[in-house]
Amino acid sequence: MSRILVVGLLVLMSLFSSMVVPLAAAKPQAAPAFCECTQYVYAKKGLSGSYGHAHTWDDSNGVLPRNGYRQYSIPQVGDVVVFSQAAMGNQYGHVAIITAVAPNYGPISVRGANQGGSETEGNCNNVNTRSYNRNGATFWRK
Question: What SUPFAM superfamilies would the database entry show (predicted)?
Fold first, then answer.
């Protein structure tokens, strides 16, 4: 009798074990990384094509015109701003997204990466909002 009971238990255990579905191992998310300004704006605006250096984004065949953006003389919240190399004092220029516009040609506040920040947003760990003057900047929107 005990032999039948053991065999019965083994049969039941094999039935139940075949019904158990193993849990899939959770894929770890990539840790936020240092981003260039172009990577941040590219991802936030869903742009396509290669992103290159910031100062080339407003060229006639740059990232922004190729993605359907047009240049405007008056900035608005949500515009992409492109700062020239001279305005930034570097060889790359800078791009960011406008978050606030002061009246009377005052400064603009922009959100972006690689501009002295340490906040994490998306996959970037060097994001912040800061103000710049408008000199040497172009403003782009769809």
Answer: Cysteine proteinases
